[in-house]
Every structure is written in C-alpha cells, then in structure tokens.
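Q: Fold this one first, please.
A: Sequence and structure below.
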Amino acid sequence: MSRVTGTLVLAGTPIGDIADAPPRLATELQSADIVAAEDTRRLRGLTRALGIHTTGRVVSYFEGNESARTPELVEALVGGARVLLVTDAGMPSVSDPGYRLVAAAVEQDIKVTAVPGPSAVLTALALSGLPVDRFCFEGFLPRKAGERLGRLREVADERRTLVYFEAPHRLDDTLAAMAEVFGAERRAAVCRELTKTYEEVKRGPLGELAEWAKDGVRGEITVVVEGAPETGPAELDAEELVRRVRVREEAGERRKEAIAAVAAEAGLPKREVFDAVVAAKNADASGPGKGKGLT
C-alpha cells in the first residue's frame, strides 16, 4: 500500500498591483491546512485585499526561522496536510524563503506544485528592451565592495543577459561597480516599483545610469544588464586582451591559465596575449598610470 502524503503548494503573490493575483491564489489560501507566510502581517493585508479569510493554521516562515521551521512543516506534509507557502511578493524560493522546504519535501517524496504568479525577474527582463532569448538570474550581489566586484568579475564575459535584485540605498555603488567591470558603455535597465503607481524603467549605458543613481532612487529595484558582446579576434585590441586577463586573475585564475583562456576566446596565439600583458605591465611600472594594471 502506497504512503499517502500531503502537498506543498508554492504560491506566487503580486509584486505590486493586487489585481495581478492569480485566480487560484484565493482558493488555495482558503483551503490550505497550513499557510506558511514570510510576513503574517503582509498575509493579512493580502487576504483583506482579496476579500477572503484563511481557515487553516497560519505560521511565519522567513529567513530567520526557515531552518528551524522546515522540519515541522515537513512533518505536517508527511501527515497529509496541504501546506501553502507565500512570500511578500513574487514566487517563493526566488531570492525568498522556500528552497529548504522544497528540498526537504522532495527528499520525502512529497508532492510539490505551484500557483504561478507575477515575477519581478521576468517582468523586468521583458520591459528592459535587452535580449531575452538567453538570460541568467544572479539575485542580490554581496554588500561588501570587494566581494561585489569579485562576483561581477566572475560573469564579466557572460554573453547572456544578466538580471539582479538590489536595495535602493546600494544601487549607485552597484551600478558604478558594474560600469567598472562590464564597461561604462554596456547597456542596462533599472526597473523600479514594477506594476506599482510609480513604476519606472530607466534605460541607458551603465556609466550614465550610475551617475543618475547618485541622486538617490527609491522602491523595489531590479537591474537588467546586457550580456558581453560576441567580439571576434579583429575587434579585440591589446587593452581589451589585458582587461580580460585581469578579470580572470582577480576571479582566482593563475596568469598562465588566464592568458591561455583569453587567447582561446579571441582565437589568437597565446604569445600575442602574453606580449600584450607584458607590455601593459611595463607601461604600468614606468608610466603615470603606475599600479592600475597588471602587477
């Protein structure tokens, strides 16, 4: 006889406009045995706006208690409960609580399903005006400047469109770091307050966006950045070859491996890239820009 277990339901919630709530959301909120919410106060506001009441038990499930509460919810699921997981906005698990619970449920062969809903990632990507055929979501960047630069350097040559979340008070520093690593002319879009009253999409080169953000930006922020250009050997000058080697070195590669990788990308002999690196090193050691290049 097969074991009967409950179902874990991941429910998308509006990222701004309450009218975007998926029709099934109200039904699931009313019928779930347990509603696990990132913020129970936000949940009450959501149910009020939808004109409904939850009948099941409501528990908090946020970053601070996610590890401790997951076993309790899994036990309820094993016992046959229908558990609904909602976060403050968007889909659970996408830079929000949920991954641990999903992984634990899968481990116990518990059914996991979803109520699809709004996504800031896809909404910003669609509005950005940048290529959408291939993209990758990078979530939030580290808060510390050095770690943030390191993370950006890891994807400096990524050709897919990049999507990030960012806090408004860190946006100017993040855009400046992106301009430094990706190049000031790389196209990007800053999407704020999506689907809300003061929705705004600011498009332009990273350098210009970094200057714009210095005056301060409010609201929920999603940043979309154009992928690295598919340049050929003839388009890569010595300065660009050196930049690519530096990016790889700062990401942890040894210089020999970095030179070999850049040469392979550019379709050039390793000696040509090596010579460019040596020339840059000599120029840094003797010129006014000493210390800014390879050492």
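Q: Good. Now the second chain.
A: Here it is, same layout.
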Amino acid sequence: MADVTESIENRFTIQEKLVYPNSHPPREKPHPNQSAPTSGFKIKFKQGNLMVQNTNNPWKMHLLSGRDRHFISEWLQVCPASRVYLDPRIDVTYLEIWAESARRYGKKTFLVFERTRQSPPYRYPRQWLVKRCCDWWISLGLLLLTTPLWLTIGFLWCCFGHRPILRRQWCVGEGGKLFLSFQFNCQVTSEAVGVGSFFTVFQRWLQNSAMVRLPLLLNVLRGEMGLLGICPRSIMDVLAMSNQQRRYLNIAPGIFPIPESGDLQDCTRISNWELEYLKTWSLWKEMQMLAKLVMGWR
C-alpha cells in the first residue's frame, strides 16, 4: 500500500484552497464531550481530479474529517472536480458516502489500487471492443424480449411487495470504477412469509433462478459490466483482498460467471478459473463459453 500511496502523491498536487478561493475556513472546535477524530481525510486536487486519502495526522486533516453524509454531499456539490479517487484505507462506510454523494452530482468515483496491464482490454483492445459491442446489443435485445416479464414482476410488486423492487450494491469495475449493481430485491424474510403465499413462492422462485440477475442488463447497457466475465466484487470484498489479487480487477465484471467456475463461494480472492480466463482470453474462446452457457453445457 505504501507504493500505491507514493504513486498517488506523485500524481496529485496539494491545493489548499479548493473550494474557498479567498481563505481556507477555520476548523471548527470540537465539542467538549466530543473527542477529536483519530483518522480523517487529506484532500488533493488537480486538473479536475479529486483525491481523498486517509490520514492519521491531525495537522493534515481536511475540514471534511468526521463530517456526516449531508456535509460531504454539500461540499461535493460545489467542488469543481469531475472525478473522485478514493484511498482504499478509508473506512467502507465513508467510501460508500463519497461514492453516493459523487454519483448524485454526476461525478465518477474510482477506488485507487495497483492494476495490471496484462488483462484482455490492454492485450487485445480491438477484440475486446467487439466483445463489449456484442454484449451491449445482446443485452438490449434481451431487455426487449423480457419486457412482459418486467411488467409482470412490477405488477406483482405493486400489489404485494413492501420493499423496493431493486436491490443496489456498490461494486468495483474496470479501472477501479465504483458503480451500483442492480438485482431484484427478492430475499424472503420472516416478515414476508405471512404476506401472501403466492408472492412468497414467486419470490423464492425468482431468487433461485437466473432471472434475479435480469436488472444487471442495465449495468451492461451503461458500460459497467459484460455478459460473461469474472464475478462482480463489492467494496467489502475488494478491501478484503490482497494487493496481488486486486491487480486483476482492471476489467469489467460479467453478469454470468465463467461456465467452469460456477458461482463462487469466496469473492475475496480471484479464483484459478478466473485467472485462467484472464490469461488465455480470446474472442473465439469467449463465443464458445457463451454458447456453453446458453445451451447449459458444463
């Protein structure tokens, strides 16, 4: 992590007067019953990029340290940065706060870690572009074909559902980009068992079928995921990974896992099947695996 932080230092320069050009606002005095934060944020800005680092030095802490979601959101609203780069040493709660606030104002958010250039997008850029275009058009066709299913699910949710129809989760994509993945919120809880037997059975069927991943087609259309690839990792999974494992996340994840690997039990590491997929990827092999997936081969 030290070399990653050192590279961050070389890429960004400190600009103390980021939002307040005339004077830097004085730091508020802590409440007598409130202890000073043991860790906080160090802010750096250059050429439209904002870097948020974790620091334990109280003299380097920005006024955003220890602030709540509303204050950070209001601060980002007037911040001129178009991209926000987040230090993985920041607490996961604050990572999600920064990502959600940046998304609200149209700013892209990235998690900073070392990335390898041995992934397929860098070794075969043209073939990878063809794959992404095919994924986009296939996803669009699948969305149009499943429109009646979308309407049926939406109607049942309006009649019996007591929770939002979609469940959102922050995931790490290509280049460390943070994005919201969407799935049907069909987990059956103890409160929902007595709501209606038909709707409960429908939720369980949806949860155990591949249809629960249907909203992920929206992520493919937004360029955040592909149809086939490595398993999408949440922020918690990525933070639990080693630096060597994170290097292979420099690629857009897929809706469906690699046919040979099945559903991963441990998402805090890159499996051997995923490593083999990244090292031996080709457009022809991708088409073969998609055919196996569609026809149900193993």
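Q: Anything worth noting on the second one?
A: Strands lie at 40-46, 49-55, 83-86, 108-111, 166-172, 178-184, 226-228, 233-234, 254-256.
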